[in-house]
Amino acid sequence: MDQKPLRISLDDSPEALRAALSQLREQHKHFVNSELALDLTRGKPATAQLDLSNALLGPIDSHSAGTDLRNYGGLDGLPAAKALCAELLGIAAETAQARLLVGGNSSLSLMHAVVSFANFLGLAGQAWSDEKNQTGQATKILCPSPGYDRHFAICEQLGIEMLVMPLTGQGPDMDALEKAAQDHSVKGIWCVPRFSNPSGEVYSDATVARLAALPKIAANNFLVLWDNAYALHAFHDKAPALASIEHEADKAGTLNQVVQFGSTSKMTFAGSGISYLASSETTKQAFAKHLAKVSIGPDKLNQQRHVNLLKDAATAKAHMRRHAEILAPKFNAVLQALDAGLAGCNMGDWSEPEGGYFVSFDARPGLANKIVALAAEAGVKLTPAGATFPYGRDPEDRNIRLAPSFPALEEVQRAAEVFVNCVQIASLEDALSR
Ligand SMILES: Cc1ncc(COP(=O)(O)O)c(C=O)c1O
């Protein structure tokens, strides 16, 4: 920034607001004329993060534990890869081989397959679409929001109705969920339990236990879709841990209806990682039976490469600390800019995540679209307003997801300054128009 950010609060006098607004507009013009091309849209690892895993590109033995890795087969994944992924997901080692499946490069594909199989073919119980045909009631999924747009896109594509559910900062509002799940046309819930996308929250132990028990009051083919995409993605060692849903579901007797997902997309190569799914042995086998119609087996060479690189949870954790060294300064840059320009100014609230890939910003109601448009004008691309809600509709037009991982640190700093300026302009214009 050429100068310190202007500090103005919506509690200041209308004269002060008008004077500040003209300065902010000048600054905006300056940004526009600078022809910036900055992008805070998607949570992609930066090149320096990808470089941490370049050992994956090295030579590899074609055989492992008597298996020719180059050939077809092994639908469930390599045993060594299962053991590794179990450690990453916190799945008990004794049951890992039976309960876990290691797939290809995308956990999103596994999620799409789980929801499609459950809908059209049946996974844990009757197919949702059959039931819909019998009862005439639309199939529904609970969507704690703001949430991950691609979860919502799966539901939209398959014609599954989405019900927006509130988040509390410690996971979804469980009272609301338990009430909603009593309607047996509700067939599932999306969860991103650690460093949630985009709110950054970590589900509390009590929330994990109540979510594990949810199938007891919900339909008998209801699924808890547990997308633990950011299981190991803390910025520091003291970040809150996540309780084991497997443990809680084992206790509650609901494991057939809990499906966990994860991947190494943001640990190694985002396009060439490995993904994993875990549930009870019964549900995993039902999934594998359907999957056998889709694939003759996964890329075992890549699974072995990951076993060689990440080895075990301790090695993976050390690897993730190196990611954190690259990511944390970028998140700090965003938080510092928000703090410098907006703290105590009544123009919005934001998350202060201890891990994950996003900062979630809530503007004053009705302003998110406007802020995103102003930022675009100034050369800063942001995720479209509304994208973090089902159907792309944020009922209050407030939430904006900031993804600072990919650009260089200086670019993140610049983009955050532009963003703050846009929030100030939109908020002042709104306040003065009343
Ligand atoms: C919550 C969440 N789940 C899944 C994914 C994608 O995972 P994968 O690359 O394994 O398909 C992302 C990527 O941004 C994500 O934020």
Describe how the helices and strands are arranged.
Layout (H helix, E strand, L loop, with lengths): L13 H20 L4 E3 L6 H5 L11 E2 L2 E2 L10 H11 L3 H7 E3 L4 H15 L6 H8 L4 E5 L4 H9 L3 E5 L8 H7 L5 E6 L13 H13 L5 E5 L17 H8 L5 E6 L11 E4 L2 H11 L8 H11 L2 H30 L5 E3 L8 E5 L4 H10 L2 E3 L16 E4 L6 H24 L2
Parallel strand pairs: 1-13, 5-6, 5-7, 7-8, 8-9
Antiparallel strand pairs: 2-3, 4-10, 9-10, 11-12, 12-14
Helix pairs in contact: 1-15, 5-7, 9-10, 13-15, 14-15
The structure holds pyridoxal-5'-phosphate.
Report on this structure.
- It is a single chain.
- This protein is an alpha/beta fold.
- It folds into 2 domains: 14-49 and 318-432, Aspartate Aminotransferase, domain 1, CATH 3.90.1150.10; 61-311, 3-Layer(aba) Sandwich (Aspartate Aminotransferase, domain 2).
- It is 44% helix and 13% strand.
- The chain contains 15 helices and 14 strands.
- The chain has helices at residues 14-33, 47-51, 79-89, 93-99, 107-121, 128-135, 149-157, 174-180, 205-217, 245-252, 281-291, 300-310, 313-342, 368-377, 409-432; strands spanning 38-40, 63-64, 67-68, 100-102, 140-144, 161-165, 186-191, 223-227, 258-263, 275-278, 348-350, 359-363, 380-382, 399-402.
- The protein has a 7-stranded mixed sheet, sandwiched between helices.
- The model has no long low-confidence stretch (mean pLDDT 96).
- The protein binds pyridoxal-5'-phosphate.
- Pyridoxal-5'-phosphate is lined by residues 43, 106-108, 148, 192, 197, 227, 229, 263, 265, 275.
- Pyridoxal-5'-phosphate (PLP) binds next to helix 5.
